[in-house]
Write a structure and sequence with these properties.
The chain is α/β, with parallel strands linked by helices. The protein folds into two domains: 70 residues, Helix Hairpins, CATH 1.10.287; 80 residues, Chitinase A, domain 3, CATH 3.10.50.30. Helices cover 40% and strands 26% of the residues. The strands form two sheets. A five-stranded mixed β-sheet has the order 5-4-3-7-6. The longest helix is centred in the first third of the chain and has 31 residues. The two termini are 29 Å apart.
């Protein structure tokens, strides 16, 4: 099985969701199914079918999370000595060479990516262009709107 990189925060979030599904959602759904069964004819019982659908979704999500956690390679970037090099888990401040705009990204696992919060996937084009580069390097990122040049102004292990 291929290991999938994940930050410490990403692993904690998945474990929290798994705990919630197993200890809160599963019992709630089981109770809802039992109550719906008491109402009689299951063929025309919308509550029963809705509860079964919720159960199916919850069990599928539990299996998915357990699989992700089994394949996870948790990387604690704070434990890695800072060398100014872009690696998985680092936070990078970039300066757009053309516009002088500054943007900050953190490179995270695929499941943790959230562009609105500046969390980019390790497999995204911008992260692939940055990995292995160092502070002061100029990087060309191939974007749908054309190539964009960035200077790496700071790399931190937050």
């Amino acid at each position: 099985m291929n290991k999938v990189p994940m930050t410490v925060a990403g692993e904690a979030a998945l474990r929290e969701e798994l705990e919630h599904l197993k200890k809160v959602e599963r019992p709630r759904i089981t109770t809802a199914i039992a109550e719906a069964r008491e109402h009689g004819d299951l063929k025309e019982n919308a509550e029963y079918h809705a509860a079964r659908e919720q159960q199916s979704f919850a069990e599928g999500r539990i299996m998915e999370i357990e699989s992700k956690l089994a394949a996870a390679q948790v990387i604690d970037v704070a434990a890695i000595p800072h060398a100014g090099k872009v690696i998985f888990g680092t936070t990078i401040e970039l300066i757009n060479i053309e516009t002088d705009d500054t943007v900050t990204y953190k490179i995270v696992g695929d499941d943790e990516a959230d562009v609105k919060n500046n969390l980019i996937s390790v497999s995204s084009p911008i992260a692939r262009a940055l990995i292995g580069k160092e502070e002061g390097d100029v990087v060309v990122v191939r974007a749908p709107g054309g190539d964009v040049e960035y200077e790496i102004s700071e790399v931190s292990h937050l």
